[in-house]
From TrEMBL:
Keyword Electron transport: yes
GO function terms (MF aspect): 4 iron, 4 sulfur cluster binding; oxidoreductase activity; thiamine pyrophosphate binding
Family (UniProt): Belongs to the pyruvate:ferredoxin/flavodoxin oxidoreductase family.
Name of the molecule in the record: Pyruvate synthase
Domain Pyruvate:ferredoxin oxidoreductase core stretches: 280-384
Domain Thiamine pyrophosphate enzyme TPP-binding: 553-658
Cross-referenced CDD domains: TPP_PYR_PFOR_IOR-alpha_like
Keyword Protease: no
Amino acid sequence: MAIDIKREEQQVGKVEQRVVYESGNEMAAYAAHQINYHIMGYFPISPSTEVAQFLDLMKANGQHDVVLIPADGEHGSAGVCYGASAAGGRVFNATSANGYLYMIEQMPVQSGTRFPMVMNLVCRSVSGPLDIHGDHSDLYYALNTGWPILMCRDPQAVYDMNIMALKLAEDAEVRLPVLVASDGYFTSHQKRRVMTFANREDVHQFIGALPARGYPDVLDRNNPITVGPYMNEPDYINNCYQQSMAMYNAEHVYDRIRKEYADLTGRDYPILDLYRMEDAEVAVFLMNSATEIIKDVVDQLRAQGIKAGSIAPNMIRPFPQKQIAEALKNVKAVTVGDRADSYGGHGGNMVNEIKAALFTQGNRDTLVVSRIYGLGGKDFYAEDGHNLFKFAIQAAEKGYVEKPFDYYGHTPGDPAKAPKRVLNPMKYEDLKTGLITVTPDAATGKLNVRIPPLRSLTKKPKRIAPGHGACPGCGIFSGLELFFKGIEGDIVALFHTGCAMVVTTGYPYSAHKATYIHNLFQNGAATLSGVVEMFWERKRRGELDYLNLPDDFTFVMITGDGGMDIGMGPAIGAALRNHKMVILEYDNEGYMNTGAQLSYSTPIGHRTSTSNVGKKQAGKLFHHKDTAQIMAATNIPYVFTGSESYPQDLVKKAAKAQWYAQNEGLVYGKILITCPLNWLSEDQEGTNIIDAAVSSNFFPLYEVENGITSITYNPEEKNKKVSVADWLGSMGKTKHMTKPENAESLASFEQEVERRWNRLKAKHENPYL
């Protein structure tokens, strides 16, 4: 089960194979399309996002039958997958980092109820602070979820392990969901030469056909079952024992499967990849992408007469305890590199499990050095490998480990280089112009707003400095700054994860002049709720008197349409509690910080990287979410839509939003934002395209003030209405909808736009609607 590999050319194998040149993400998708899974529930998060993108592109071209279900967040995607697996089909997913942690509540449920599936964990740093590059901090959270875990050092392994993983998951002795782990960006995005099955039939012959998995599912009407009952002790401990036995069974079942696979393909993945360990006196243990580099270092040290070797696991759950102890029985010292820390545990998870393995198997002689390396995607070079070996060599020479645990690759801070404030805080008198007045109208119950000519507000300082990294033509900051022109005085802003957050806060720099907070994609509304209530409580207790605040803060949460998908629940919760704050959504019709995937605000038929256009599919398959109407249904004081193509309208609504947020409760606003990258449009055409979106009634301008709807711009009354088709024709992502073959999709979209517009007009005319 642990084979010493000499890096020789592999044999061809028994099945016909073909060579491709692809990345790890592409190979995960390629394996999934050959398997032809029934269902993939997904939600985009870098660096795993591409897996769904590649599958969708192949789906658009008719290359597979996998049903891709875009979820509202990773927790939802895990639920989709669990339900689909309970219904007896083959299920696939991919995620990373905080996305995995968001779904982790579902992971033990799936393994504890023994429903197989395969999920790719494209490993990435877990926030915070936010870092999207590869380490194993998310992987280590997976160790206790009850899923067997296979490891992938390169794109070839990603392909092979994905095929073996399904066979392992469905084996009668295992019957568990399986995790396939690869390194984000190192493996996921770097292209390599990969050998694949040339024929899908050979893949199916290897994994086996459905059904006949030997256990019931929820769709068997002749055998109704109860899934996930409440269970007391002793039944619960018995269930856990059976699951534990299944996990340990996965070791010998995997060993059988990998031998079958090696016979077919010529590629073997023993549980331990041992390199030149037959007489090694010093060794390094690493996982995944760093393991090929360390082999080069071993060769270099061997040339110097040092008996070096390396160990890399292809499976870490179940942990290969006996094989590790056997591999190290003659080794004087080993350095274990963990690409994540188990904070407070005197080492990462792997070093502590290796120590336990040696202790349990009676090896008290091998010295173990623990080093945390490569966090946040820090590159690993041959020089680093030599240094890891140096720690083991020094321990072997001295007969003891001088420093058992430490970080490797960190640098001491330099007080002289501490970040310094570049921009001074904005002056209150500059922010409080006095040019905007908001007064309640007792007769109508609405607010009367007076604003000066917009040129009078140009002296008002911008809340966000120009030094950000947004794409050319991005409408986020022009839209936000126009909204902020209507806000008088100081703000505290919270930004959800999204384009606006990512491009303005690259440490050690920040483009934010006012106080700024960031929290997780889904939890901003709850976080800002806590800030708001703490402000009012500390003010009530007199703890903020020293600030001499002339006015109260205005608390604003900025979110994209993605944040109002994954964060919809907390946003509704904040609305129902009616905290004094503003939620402002910039809608660019896609998940842009992860690369132009569809959001629930993407309209039907629109092209994104997960709603591709091809001979079998013509863009997004379902209608867009009307967030403003959803939030209006929570009965908050004020809801509005806005557009920078109608600046006076937006500034007036911002002034109203501030008044309501300071005096009555929660405000929700939605502004349409141009995104040339997603819309496939010219940078300079953004305002014109948004104007057409408003004038076609796709994005109507209105407000809901204390439950009463008022349309604030009616293109029909102004004789400025344009057709939906004319608007769609102005963007590359939607031009296909104007072609004759997509007439049905266009008609469906036009009918939906007209239906929503007529409902809005009815509400405008009737205060009880």
